[in-house]
Design brief:
The protein is an alpha+beta fold. It contains 17 helices and 32 strands.
Length: about 625
């Protein structure tokens, strides 16, 4: 939120005075022997009667600020003299009064008397909230040629030029060219409110209060709430990307197909299913009582979420250690560099993001930098098409069996330190999964979900996972299982014999149920392995069952699957059901096959991401 703050709250150590004798100003810059001639007049009178300030006076009058500088108060004015460098009177005169006030008049005014003296070196806040360096010799980079002209309501310093106005990032929305669609979207969330506390009250008219200077508080719910970025405040520092209309259209065209919604959305609510068959019978279909429907405006969801994703990762805090390349304009980046957005998303292709800036155009703002971009150069998985991982603490486990107390479902967590001498557990886990999910530098624990407390020796437990928030795209499905040795190093090594059933809603709004097949030649497999060698390294098929390699963590490749409708942000979900295919009614089977299940992750990798993974 943009707040208008009184300068006295920030600089309580500044020497303040309203009226003073000639000796109080000392003789710095120029001593006024006739100071009484000035001190008895208002700021406006002294400005309008000074011939070298006639241009400044004309601008102040057009802006409607003559009355304000003629009323009781306490202001400091840095007034550019006629003909000084950079003082473009003709251009300023063409501005409307509102812009003339914010960009020029308030740029050169501050609350309270601030005299020039030999030791002054302060950061002052002008009436338009911009920060300026004020020293014995300069206001910003402009020389002070005559200081300390006393007035009854403040003090005037004559300067040899115009202070450069830099908009903040939010103000720049009104100035940037070629980014109309982006600006229009953000402006929908703008609110304005009169700040009666900081506005200058004028005369009563028809019994109503009028204001000589109305201060407006501007807020934008999208930037301040959703994007956690206060781009309208002057004491912040951000780098913000402004997509051109071409960049906006391109982003929308890429994102929108991944957010295809049906207005009437049926799904199988597995959490409320009490049947003990579920995935174990190929002919099983959801019961009427557990088939639910979500109704909403699908077209609105598609458009709204497409726009939201387009703008969500365009702002970076310059105070974050991740964003040095942006904050310091240091463009010598490496492959390991990462940017962090204000909503804590991480972008890794820093060189391409920086290179996307239109014509290398970086515009300085009063609170950071604006970068006009012809394309939003983020990786799909870091922006609009993420990898989804379901597991420990995701609250996604569903089972009708559990509701009948045939078994329980729990979360397991083992410190990696306890597994240091047991690296053979991970011997067949591809590097990509190790780096992403079993990275000991990023996590202290190996986590998993598991079945426990079986009601009887014959129980065949099942884990059902709600795959929340999937987009309408193709996903490569992987299931990562863990052996009993994770918990018990002395346990007998036994494989899982499993079946996987997938339910989802098709493009016509029908619930589909599919028994999944195993991909026996995943991307990380050594092509030279024989069928016998593969059984020693990766899961394999035995009839209709998928069999894991005992004693190690397995990555089960269940192939590519097309999700025709989006589940992002709605209550519906597809379901992956994992069930045993062996019975455990005999001690022989219980000795041969793992009865409980331990699953570390279910990972859904978008096809376009899966193609770019370096497996070997």
């Amino acid at each position: 939120m943009k707040y208008i703050e009184k300068i006295g709250l920030l600089f309580t150590t500044i020497l303040m005075f309203v009226a003073t004798s000639c000796s109080d100003y000392s003789d710095y810059n120029e001593a006024f022997n006739d100071s009484n001639m000035y001190a008895g007049k208002t700021l406006w009178q002294n400005i309008s009667e000074n011939e070298e300030l006639s241009d400044f006076a004309s601008l102040v009058k057009k802006a409607g600020y003559a009355d304000i500088l003629n009323t009781p108060g306490s202001y400091t004015v840095w007034a550019p003299k006629n003909g000084s460098a950079g003082f473009d009177v003709e251009t300023l005169m063409q501005l409307d009064s509102a812009k003339l006030v914010s960009k020029f008049v308030k740029q050169h005014l501050a609350n309270f008397n601030m005299p020039v003296n030999a030791t002054v070196e302060e950061t002052v806040l002008s009436l338009n909230e911009k920060k300026h360096l004020f020293t014995a010799e300069k206001f910003d980079d402009v020389n002070i040629v005559r200081g300390n002209i006393p007035s009854s309501n403040g003090v005037i310093h004559v300067i040899d030029g115009q202070s450069t106005f830099y908009p903040n990032l939010y103000e720049y929305l009104d100035e940037v060219e070629g980014c109309d669609k982006f600006v229009k979207y953000l402006k929908k969330y703008e609110t304005k409110e009169l700040d009666t506390k900081n506005s200058v009250v004028g005369p009563m008219v028809a019994g109503k209060i009028t204001y000589l200077d109305s201060v407006i508080i501007i807020d934008n719910l999208m930037t301040t709430k959703r994007l956690d970025a206060k781009i309208a405040t002057e004491d912040s520092s951000y780098t913000m990307f402004f997509p051109t209309d071409a960049a906006w259209d391109k982003a929308v065209s890429v994102i929108k197909p991944h957010l295809n919604y049906l207005s009437s959305f049926p799904y199988w609510d597995v959490a409320s299913e009490n049947s003990t068959t579920l995935a174990t019978q190929a002919s099983f279909q959801p019961s009427t009582s557990t088939t639910k429907t979500v109704n909403f405006d699908g077209e609105y969801y598609t458009d709204s979420l497409t726009n939201l994703i387009t703008i969500s990762d365009l702002i970076f805090s310059n105070t974050s250690r991740y964003n040095k390349a942006l904050a310091e304009q240091d463009y010598s980046v490496t492959e390991t560099d990462t940017l962090r957005t204000t909503i804590s998303d991480y972008m890794t292709n820093v060189d391409k993001i920086i290179a996307s800036t239109k014509d290398n155009s970086v515009v300085k703002m009063s609170n950071g930098y604006a970068r006009i971009t012809d394309s939003i150069a983020y990786k799909p998985e870091e922006w609009y098409n993420p990898v989804f991982s379901y597991g420990y603490n995701n609250n996604v486990m569903r089972s009708g069996f559990e509701s009948q107390l045939l078994f329980e479902v729990g979360n397991g967590r083992i410190p990696y330190d306890d597994l240091q001498s047991r690296d053979t557990l991970f011997r067949e886990v591809p590097d990509w999964f190790m780096k992403k999910y079993f990275n000991r530098e990023k996590s202290d624990n190996f986590t998993y979900m598991y079945t426990k407390n079986l009601k009887s020796n014959s129980t065949r437990p099942e884990l059902d996972i709600a795959l929340n928030n999937l987009h309408s795209t193709k996903y490569h499905m992987y299931v990562i299982t863990a052996p009993e040795q994770i918990d018990d190093t002395l346990a007998t090594q036994k494989p899982y014999y499993l079946s996987f059933v997938f339910t989802y809603t098709d493009k016509d709004g029908q619930i589909k149920k599919e028994t999944l097949s195993l991909n026996e030649s995943p991307a990380w497999v050594d092509d030279s392995w024989s069928a016998a060698e593969k059984k020693k390294h990766i899961p394999y098929k035995d009839g209709t069952s998928i069999v894991t390699v005992p004693g190690i963590i397995n990555v089960i490749d269940l192939g590519m699957h097309d999700i025709p409708v989006s589940y992002l942000g709605i209550d519906a979900y597809p379901t992956l059901m994992m069930c045993h295919t062996k019975t455990y009614s005999t001690s022989s089977n219980r000795n041969k096959y793992e009865q409980n299940m331990r699953v570390a992750r279910v990972v859904m990798v978008p096809e376009e991401v899966d193609k770019t993974i370096k497996w070997k």
